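Record 1 of the preview.
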Amino acid sequence: MSTPLGDPNLDRPRSILLVDDEPLNRDMLSRRLGKAGYEVSTASDGAEALAQIDAKRPDLVLLDLLMPGMSGLDVLREIRRTVDPTELPVVVATALHETSFLVEAMEAGANDFVTKPLDFPVVLARVESQLRAKGIADRNRTLASRLEVARTRLEVANRELAQMFGELEREADMDRRSRDTARQRLHSMAVLGDRASKGIDQDVVMHDLLLGGMVALQATSAALYRVDGDVLRRQYAVPDAAQVPEELPLDGQTILARIAHGHSVLTETCKPFGTGAVVAALGAPMVDPDGEVQAVVLLMRGPSSPFAREDENAVASLAAILEGALQRTALTRTNIERMIRMAGMRDPSETFSHTNRVAGMSLVLFNAWCDRHAIPMERRLREGDLLRTGAMLHDVGKVAIPDGILKKPAALTPDEYSTMMGHTTEGAALFSGHRTPFDRIAHDIVLHHHQRWNGRGYPPVAQPDGTLSPLRGEQIPLTARIVAIADVYDALLSTRRYKRAWSRAEAADYLRSQSGEHFDPELVELATGLLDELDAARAEFPESDAAGERA
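->
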């Protein structure tokens, strides 16, 4: 189950308030903007403009700065007393070309500016750019609201689990062994519910929850099938997806289909997929807030160890936890995907497939590093979840780089290259303050993935002696060192307009040549010993529509 990204543009005609004391300017601009599909209202002075904004909030204000009486700057400052720039963009227009005057307007809260005499194509481009950014900001606020609703539902599910635990305690007719078993099951579900509320990456969270459900219910395998039209399609399976069919008919007689149709928990000894070995199977429907079955979770173990009655309550709780986590992580993933697609609008090489490949390969390298250093599973799951999502955002700061530099077909000048390097600090600023563990890891990745092991990377940072210089060696955060290798390896194997795709052998040789120079030697050793696993992670997100050739 997934949440569509949707179009960041508004579905209704967008409205513009044109504020100018010159009637000819108002008439000309209102006609041309109207022909471009906008609803245009006008005001001849600042007081009238503020009254219209209060009465009916437009989507954008096009404001002349030089007006008699209440100036455009005064109007702008009054707007910004109560309205954020992301909620109501203001594009200012002025015949003055002094930099200080325009700077004063931008400091007062203007989103953009145009100069008189007006060039309408430029005006239209600036208006569309600001409205597109407003649409994205509006949808991000909507997603944040939905995320809060999903979190509340998950908290309710946890409280219901606690209530079930109390009710189970009061059942005096249950023998002690059954009581202890049920208590252990519900405690395990409560722990899983807590873990589900903290994860970010959907794939990592769902695999973690399925593994936890297997352990709690002493199962040997688990699968999650989502309802997709008239079929049940496999979305997750542990430990080996290859042993589980990709899809099953929704109108069939398998236990999965009967659970989906009956909206009920089932346990029986059967062939759960219609063919194969007979196993003890236990499953439950995953029901969304509207009462629709969105997916089915199924646990399996040997036929000689059938599931007990108390297991049915536990698997129902597991299904509720999985559904809540799926809803919450889908919203988070949508938000992350939107940020990546925003970067992709500016830099065609920053494709959604590329960022997912870098994330997948980073997780492969991180798990290998954890194996070598005997990292506890709890830390591995927690930090792997954050690393995978943070790696997807490694170049999000490119949205702040001017197109003239980002898309320049020739070599960059030293000043242009210095500006380009600023994408690391611009992107890291999005996660400053470290309000959450994810903020910390994302900040480290975005800021430091261009550092080099030999200390010749960027950006420079403050050292203990007060000087500024790039990080080197193990000063560079582990997560940034991992993403650096994954990012370069994927770029080498991808086609770009300025290069062919390298072979795996050529790319591996390059990594070895940069061991101790660009990259952490230990991570290079791990990466070149895991080429099959890295390529498998890349294969999950191939480029489409010749995206690599356009990049």
